[in-house]
Every structure is written in structure tokens, then in C-alpha cells.
TrEMBL record:
The protein, known as: Predicted arabinose efflux permease, MFS family
Principal subcellular localisation of the protein: membrane
GO molecular function annotation: transmembrane transporter activity
PANTHER family: MAJOR FACILITATOR SUPERFAMILY TRANSPORTER, SHIKIMATE TRANSPORTER
A family per Pfam: Sugar_tr
Organism per entry: Flavobacterium fontis
Residue ranges constituting the Major facilitator superfamily (MFS) profile domain according to the UniProt record: 12-511
Record field: transmembrane: 21-42, 48-71, 83-105, 117-138, 150-172, 184-203, 239-257, 277-295, 307-323, 409-434, 446-465, 485-503
Membrane disposition: Multi-pass membrane protein
Record key words, sorted: Cell membrane, Membrane, Transmembrane, Transmembrane helix, Transport
GO cellular component: plasma membrane
InterPro entries named in the record: MFS_dom, MFS_sugar_transport-like, MFS_trans_sf, Sugar_transporter_CS
Amino acid sequence: MSKASSKGIWKVISASSMGTMIEWYDFYIFGSLAVVISTKFFPSDNPTAAFLSTLATFAAGFVVRPFGALFFGRLGDLIGRKYTFMVTLMLMGGATFLIGCIPSYETIGFMAPVLVLILRLLQGLALGGEYGGAATYVAEHAPKGERGYWTSWIQTTATVGLFVSLMVILITKSVMSKEAFEDWGWRVPFWVSVLMVVVSYYIRKGMHESPVFAKAKAEGKTAANPLKESFGNKYNLKFVLLALFGATMGQGVVWYTGQFYAMNFLKTVQAIDSSQVDTLLGIALVLGTPFFVVFGKLSDKVGRKNIMMLGMLIAIIAYRPIYRAMYTTTDLTKKTEIVEKTTTVPTMKVVEGTKIDSIYTTNRAYTDGTTVEEIKTIHMEEGKVMLDDKGKEKVETKITKKINNADRWMLVFLVFIQVIFVTMVYGPIAAFLVEMFPVKIRYTSMSLPYHVGNGIFGGLLPAISTYLVTTAKDAGDVEFYLEGLWYPIIIAGVCFVIGMIYIDKKINTLHE
């Protein structure tokens, strides 16, 4: 490749990547702050139900992504790649900013979760149109035989977006008190996205249309009805279904297990301090992100299928041992408590009238450097413990662990391994999808299976896995906490079998 053409494609990648990174940042801010958001926009009398409702609202943004893929994919194949993902960028940025402006449940009642849901749906629609446009745009600028390498740079944006969201949250937390952050500071990361969107808008504004699409349009070879030609044509529909069930379905669950499920597991099951989790996850992402490009480039030489299928297979086999090791690393039953350092401080809080919370804060220290804060809240009325809807005493216990350096690096390593699985299945997939479909219906055809695989199969993972854990019988045992992994293992397993049997290596060169 000449210096001029190399400089040109780097300009294309920079413009596409920055916008896509911002859209992923916007999308992941919600998931990263799910624990805090559940206390702001949902009824506080049932924390578990509020958290599950937050995850369901988070998942709703994923479920609607295929509709965004259809709507914006059609526009992209009709009027062009550039203008379509300019619209998706502005839609995503506006919705994210407005989530940070919604009053709490205590202020406006049920309108709070309703407004959050509407804005999450708009985010999902926007993201449904963004990825296909960015991946197609870069692929159509890439030289023949190098699509895997150049499109893999787009693949890094989702992980970079998550990393940036974690860093913004950490910085925001570090410059204000815990009380201020939980009161209003959590809104700041939502507001920050507006500044990034403005910068990205001006960068994208100067971009030219994809040369491949511009040529097809000039020659009158664009699709008159992209939806009909993509899904009404049996030959093309076969490839759409193969892309979904033989690749993106498994890729989606591996992606969200390695990043979001890991984060939720560390914060909710292992009860590790949120800032520590964000930091160790950020380190693992920084170490793992370059491998998107490594496996993308390797796929140009050995084929997309080989790398993606191997990534799924290793993930299927390794997930349970990895999460068992994660749980064991911070298991307090395997640590020695320094009993003489244990302190308990009782406090009382008047909630309303005769309703009083008796709060007992216990701090424990362990010989390996781990410290634990346990806050037990007993809800009382007229001197008696209140009962919930099921007739049980309303007693809440919140545990927060601050882990030592050795445990922290062990967890970084275990999350890093999962990120490697992600890079294997995700690095080559943009090029894989682009090459399956002709130019005139490429945006529409590749966007739908990608967003069904990621939006529905992947996006539902946190809610379904959490549900599987909460309905498991043997509470308290490590195996009980691993029940949620059956969802990604089964979905990835089915995808692996279909992919191995039906994906032909010739797909790599179908539409070079």
C-alpha cells in the first residue's frame, strides 16, 4: 500500500472509530452504573427487584438494536454510509445526555423508569445503525486481502468505549465524596458524552462517501428495496441466517460474558469495591485490546472461521473453571480474620414517622490485607421489625470487600483471559460479515445478524444469567453462583456446532 493510500485509510479509521467508540461509551455508561441507577429510577423497597429491572432496561436497549439495523441499514444502502451514521451519532449522544437529566423515582415516580426505558430504546436504535455503517465504510476503503486487519481497528472501539466509560466513572468518583457521587455525581458521565459527540460530529462531517458505494450509486447498481433484496431473496437469506446462528450468536455471548458478566460477577457476587473492579477491569481491557488487531490480521492469513470457532470452543471449556477461580480468590471462608480488629458501630435513622432503620456497620480485617465493611440494616416500625410482601423480616445486608494486591492481579489475569476469547471471536467478524454480502445490500444484510446476535443473544445475557443464579437452589455455594454461565455456554456451543458444519472457508473471498 502506498503512503498516500495508507494515510487515507487511517483517516477513515480514525473518524469511524472515534464516533463508534463514543456510541459504545454512551451505551456502556448505563451498564457500568447499573447498581447506582437501580436506586435512582426504580422503587427502593426491593433492591433485588430494582437491580433486575435495571438489567432488564439495559437489555431492552439491546433487544431493539435489530430494528435500528433494519431502519438505518436500509438508509445506508439507499442514501449512503456517511450520512446514515452521522444521524446515529447525534441520536445516541442526545439520548445519553437526557438520561443524565431525568429526575429520580422519588421526584417523579413511575415516569422515571418509563423515561429511562424510552431513552434506552433510542440508544439501541442508534447503535443498531452505527456499527454496520462504520464496519462497512472501513471495509470498503480497505485493500483486497487486508480487510481483517483494517476492520479489526473498528472492533477495538467497543472495548475502548467500555474502558473510557470506566475511567470517566473512576475520575468522577475520585473528585467528589461517595455521598455526592451517589446523590448526583453519577449523572456527570452521561453529561460528558455531549462534549465527545460534538468533537466526533465535526470530524465525521469532513468525511467522503465510501468509494465502493459511490461507484455503485453512480452506475445505478444500488438496491431499490434493500430489505426485500436482503431477506426476500432465499439465497441471501441463507447467508443472513448462517451469519447469525453460525457466528454472531456465539460471538455475542462470549463478548458480554468476558466484559459485562465479569463486571457484574465481581461487583454483585464477590462484593468487591466498585472502584477496584473498574480499575482491574480497565487494566485487563488495556492489555487485551491489541489482540483484536492481532487476530484480525491473522484472519487475513488463516481465515476468519478458524479463529472465531477456536475462540468459542476455548471459552465454552474454560468459563466455569475461570469463574470458580475468581470466586475462590476472594472467598472470605478461606481467609483468616484478625478478630481483635473487628469493630461494630450501631446507628439509628428515622425514615418516616414511626419507621426507623437500625443500622449496624461492622468492619473486619484479614491477615492477607483484605478488608470488609458489612452494613446490616433492620427496618422497624413501632419497635417491631417490618415484614416484606412474602412475610419475611425486612433486613438488608450489604458487604463491600477491598481486596489486596495479590488478589487484584489474579483477577486481572482471569478477566484478561476472557478478553482474549473476546478478541478471537470479535476481531475477525466485521470482515467476515462484510465479505458475505454484495455492496448494494451489504449495510442492511450484515447489520441484522450482527445486532440480533449481539443485541438479543448477547444483550440478554446479564438479565438471564442473573435470573438463573437467583432461582438456583443451593444458595451460598460457589457452584450456585456459576449457574448463570450455562446461558453463554449453551448458546456458544450451539453456534460452534453450526459454524463448524455450515460455514465454508470460501466465504472469506465471496465478495472481495
